[in-house]
Amino acid sequence: MCDEITEAENAALMRDAGFNRREFASMGAGVAALAALPGCSMARESSAATASRTVTIDTPDGKADAFFVYPTKGKHPAVIMWPDIAGLRDAYMTMGTRLAAAGYAVLVVNQYYRSSPAPILNSLMEWRAPEGAAKLKPMIAAITPKGTTSDAGAFVGWLDTQKEVDTKKKIGTCGYCMGGPFTVRTAFANPARVGAAASFHGGGLVGTDTDSPNRLLAETQAAYLFAIAKNDDERAPDEKNVLRAAAKAAGRPAEIEVYPAQHGWCTLDAPIYDRAQAEKAWSRMLALFKTNL
């Protein structure tokens, strides 16, 4: 996931490409701003008009705030979106809105609700500043596998009460960075309702604990997309093989691919954002959802 090693790798890559650190830190915000401009949609598939609202969801651990966005007409399959380490912010609201415009009722959650309402940080780069890292450290520690699974169950239950959600359709989930393994936990939390899960440059997907995501696949009924960053694969080359073996043993359909892009490449405000590879990953997610929701 987004850690000191990943940050050093990405910074070195940008320096090799001729960017200094200040330029490196400012690139992501510009991309996010462009994506949010009317007429600058990054998705040819986006067509439906959308509406949105900030919502509060009761969970066993408290009240979780989230951004709910959906097409203005009709009922649609629901998707739970888990942001990266910097949490719910403008970049993920933009990404959620894009997915809603493709025909989904999207709940973009604040995984840090136990500690603070969103936004926690305004951009991905803020977490690498000493103040950002210090702010996030105790919040990250407050998130546990058990808590994430509990949250996911509450989010699914809430979505099934919303008039914009087609409860005859399965629910999907997607997650980025630290949110990647949360997608598996979402599928585990309510197997009967969650039909598809997509992880993008997810960290912590493979482990030996009984509740490690790779060991939970057999207790889910979802189809999977695991999009892995090149530098993550270089550090842990066997993890993709473990995921493949676990999915096969569980009888779970799984598309597992290493992308020629750095960790964080799918997030709009990431300095390492790679539009071409992000678009490919996005298209594979849409294909997954179309087939399984």
* Assembly state (oligomeric): single chain
Largest sheet: 8 strands, mixed
Mean of residue pLDDT? 88
- Spans of at least 5 consecutive residues with low confidence: 4-44
Can you count the beta strands?
8
Supply Rg. Answer: 18 Å
Structural class: alpha/beta
Organism: Novosphingobium hassiacum
EC number: 3.1.1.45
Keywords: Hydrolase
Protein name: Carboxymethylenebutenolidase
Structural description of this entry:
- Keywords: Hydrolase.
- GO terms for molecular function: carboxymethylenebutenolidase activity.
- The structure is a single chain.
- The protein has helices spanning 4-16, 21-36, 90-101, 130-141, 145-159, 180-189, 213-216, 230-235, 239-250, 275-292, and strands at 50-59, 62-71, 78-82, 105-109, 171-176, 194-200, 223-229, 254-259.
- The chain has a single domain (4-37, 50-292), classed as Alpha/Beta hydrolase fold, catalytic domain (Rossmann fold), CATH 3.40.50.
- The protein has ten helices and eight strands.
- It is an alpha/beta fold and 293 residues long.
- 48% of the residues are buried.
- Strands 1-2-4-3-5-6-7-8 form an eight-stranded mixed β-sheet, sandwiched between helices.
- The protein is globular, with a radius of gyration of 18 Å.
